Amino acid sequence: MADQAPIERLLTEIAQLREHCPWMGALTHSSLVEYLLEESYEVAETIEAGHPDSELLGELGDVLLQVVLHARLAEERGAFTFDDVARGLAAKMVRRNPHVFRPDGSLQEAFPATVEEIVRKWDAVKRDERPERQDPFEGIPDAMPALAKAQKSLDRAARAGVELPPAETAPETEEKLGELLLAVVRSAHAAGFDAERALRGAVRHYQQGIRPDQAGPDTAPS
């Protein structure tokens, strides 16, 4: 295997482990979910805490392992392969970034000057891909942590041109925002409330209050 490219060697090793390692052989898509989430959080922590690049390298490898394992499980049942995943992703990058690529994958002659123009083009491509999607919140995972779900929902609403909930004056810095959020959670804990459940409920009620026909032309499901 020494003459194989790194990704080919990894795919070969995973296939062999699936065949000869009882623990690896027993893995399923469902049993791998907790590991995918855990490894993703570890990458985030490594980046946010400013850990060395060597640690980030290892954590990214752990996330890649999850992708390779899921692809291998799919290949074993004849659904798709890792190459199909990579091929589909490459095609998606070309399709969703017409400001950079021509349809054949070659580079455009000129590129947009602003992020706003890029976002408009991105949103237009996604609307063309899924014209049946009218709800600006469709595609946001229910299992997403409440705070992340709230932020994603507000971003979708803003880009769709629909009404946003009233906002308090924002803290001056991100650090002060963190302290405010922690204080809110502490107050919830003291009162016997579950802050995660409370915010999840508030986000759900907000989403349900937005009718699909309220969404403007810039609705951008992802």
From TrEMBL:
InterPro entries: MazG-like_dom, NTP-PPase_MazG-like_N, NTP_PyrPHydrolase_MazG
UniProt xrefs under Pfam families: MazG (PF03819)
CDD domains for the chain: NTP-PPase_MazG_Nterm (cd11528)
GO BP terms: dATP catabolic process; dGTP catabolic process; dTTP catabolic process; dUTP catabolic process; TTP catabolic process; UTP catabolic process
UniProt keywords, alphabetically: Hydrolase
GO molecular function, one term: nucleoside triphosphate diphosphatase activity
Domain NTP pyrophosphohydrolase MazG-like: 28-101
UniProt-recorded name of the protein: Nucleotide pyrophosphohydrolase
Organism: Pseudarthrobacter enclensis
